[in-house]
Every structure is written in structure tokens, then in C-alpha cells.
Design goal:
mainly alpha, 12 helices, transmembrane helix, Fatty_acid_hydroxylase
């Protein structure tokens, strides 16, 4: 049940409840309660069907990761709360399809946000100043649900702005934005999950953990694949998709080969991108098991 039911339960179950709550205009704390239940479910399933049992062990990083989650979720909720103010400051043309069923509005918002976030994610592997902040996320050496929101808040803000700003400019309603915020959090839980779940051929379309592990390979250029948050559609189009069903992952393959001693405490991770050593000067690396299964990258290696 956990192996085959976990992903539908999270994607359809929790998101479905969240969509119903948002459509009814219920208080936002109900969405926080749904997210809390989703996080508890993620931790439970990771222990029932772990991909790597060692990844469930705290490595003096659990408190840090919870701080990352608290800070970045607060930023996401604050951005949702700020939408009416932004709409008042920058009047938007009323192009939003209010007549569509609410669930269709949320799906449309997800697809638009997915494109913007994917573009910024890819750029963060190609542009040095963005990589400085994105590197915080790539410093992980174990793969589990909370890793999804282990991000520098400045980079989180840039990513979310790229995904949501076009929606706000065409009149994104607050209740749709609330459902989108929940969907982002649930997707990050699934995408970085330590659960050895099964999704069949859907793994070639949805950006879930089987494909996203390749993105966290530590060698320069090798991890420049599978950038999508919700889908892998843009990766297929940009030829940045990679998948090898025979590949097995462990902690020795994660992190950043160029920065094996990247700071691990929360405060140091907040400060490090601003320091002279906070960037990466990298030489290309080879890992033939992956390199032979995907098209070549089209920019300088950056992780």
C-alpha cells in the first residue's frame, strides 16, 4: 500500500483536500494543518519503505533542516498574503480564467509556475551569482523529504517570484495561490523523499524522487539534469532529462565534489554565499554511468 499508494495519496489526497479548503475560502491555518499532516505522512512512509535506511538517520542536520522549512514556508505564506497588496500597487489586467472550475485554475497555475521555476533553477546552475545561493540546496548528503525546502531564502524568493509573478500579473486569485503554495510544498516532499515508492511510466513525466536523485549527483555538470519542480516536460524539451533505471544512489554520490566541506549549520549557510569562498570554480568531472545515458549539457558545469 505504501509503495504504490503513497504518491496518489499525497498528490490527489492532500492536494485535493487543500483545493477544497481553498475553494471554500476557509482560514489559511487549515492549509498549514494539511501540510503538517503531509509532513508526518512523509516521515512515516520513509520509515516503512526507505530507499536507504541510513538516510533516515539524523546527521546533526535535522534541526537545521526544520529551520529551513520554517523560514521558507513562512516566506511562501507571506508572498500569498501579499498578493492583494501587489495587485493594488500594480493593477493587473483581468485575464485570469475565473469561470473555469477551481481545480482547473489550480492546475493551470501549477503549469505556469512550473515553467518559471524550472527556468530559474536551470539558470542557477549556469550563472555564478545564482549558484552561490542555490549551492545551499546541493550541499545535502542524504535524501529525505525536508531537503526540498532546504534552500537559501534569497534563492527561494527568486524561484517563487519567477513562478508566481506572471500569474499575479494576470490576476491570480488569493485562494488559487494558497492551493498552489500547498502543492509546491507537497511536491518538494515527494521529490526529495527517501521512500522507495513506485509510480510506473509516470516517472518520465512527473518530477519525483526517482528522477530528481540524478539532479543531486555531486560531480560538475553531471547533476545539471532534471530541473523541473512539478513536471519533466521542460527537461525533455531542453534535452536536460536523464534517467538510468540501473543506478543506485548513496551518500557518497551526493553533495558537491568541489565543496566537500560546505558549511552545515543554518547561520553559516545563510552567510557563506556572501563570502569570497562562497562560489565554486569547477573543472568538468566524469561519471560515465550517468554521462552515457543523457545528452550533453549545453552550458558550463556548475555543481
Amino acid at each position: 500500500m505504501a509503495r504504490y499508494g503513497y504518491v496518489p495519496f499525497m498528490l490527489i489526497g492532500f492536494n485535493g483536500v487543500g483545493i477544497a479548503v481553498a475553494a471554500a475560502g476557509a482560514p489559511k491555518y487549515w492549509l498549514l494543518a494539511i501540510l503538517a499532516a503531509a509532513i508526518m505522512t512523509a516521515f512515516l512512509v520513509e520509515r516503512v519503505i526507505p530507499y536507504d535506511e541510513e538516510w533516515n538517520d539524523d546527521r546533526a542536520d535535522g534541526t537545521r533542516d526544520r529551520i529551513h522549512v520554517a523560514v521558507n514556508e513562512t516566506l511562501i505564506l507571506a508572498s500569498v498574503a501579499a498578493i492583494p497588496l501587489l495587485a493594488a500597487i500594480v493593477p493587473a489586467p483581468q485575464l485570469w480564467p475565473h469561470s473555469w472550475p477551481f481545480v482547473a485554475q489550480v492546475l493551470a497555475a501549477i503549469l505556469v509556475a512550473d515553467f518559471g521555476i524550472t527556468v530559474v533553477h536551470l539558470a542557477s546552475h549556469k550563472i555564478g551569482v545564482l549558484w552561490r545561493f542555490h549551492a545551499v540546496h546541493h550541499s545535502i548528503t542524504r535524501f529525505y523529504g525536508l531537503n526540498g525546502l532546504m534552500k537559501h531564502p534569497l534563492h527561494q524568493t527568486v524561484e517563487m517570484a519567477a513562478g508566481v509573478a506572471p500569474l499575479i500579473l494576470i490576476g491570480l486569485p488569493v485562494n488559487v495561490a494558497s492551493a498552489l503554495a500547498l502543492a509546491v510544498a507537497i511536491q518538494l516532499l515527494l521529490q526529495h523523499s527517501n521512500a522507495d515508492y513506485r509510480i510506473g511510466p509516470v516517472k518520465y513525466v512527473l518530477a519525483l524522487n526517482e528522477g530528481h536523485r540524478f539532479h543531486h549527483l555531486k560531480w560538475a555538470g553531471i547533476g545539471d539534469v532534471n530541473f523541473g519542480l512539478f513536471t519533466l516536460v521542460w527537461d525533455h524539451l531542453m534535452r536536460t532529462y536523464s534517467y538510468d533505471p540501473a543506478r543506485r544512489f548513496d551518500s557518497t554520490q551526493l553533495g558537491m565534489a568541489a565543496k566537500p566541506d560546505y558549511p552545515s549549520s543554518y547561520l553559516r549557510q545563510m552567510i557563506y554565499p556572501f563570502t569570497p569562498g562562497g562560489g565554486c570554480t569547477l573543472a568538468p568531472a566524469a561519471d560515465t554511468r550517468v554521462a552515457e545515458t543523457r545528452p550533453p549539457t549545453f552550458g558550463p558545469a556548475s555543481n
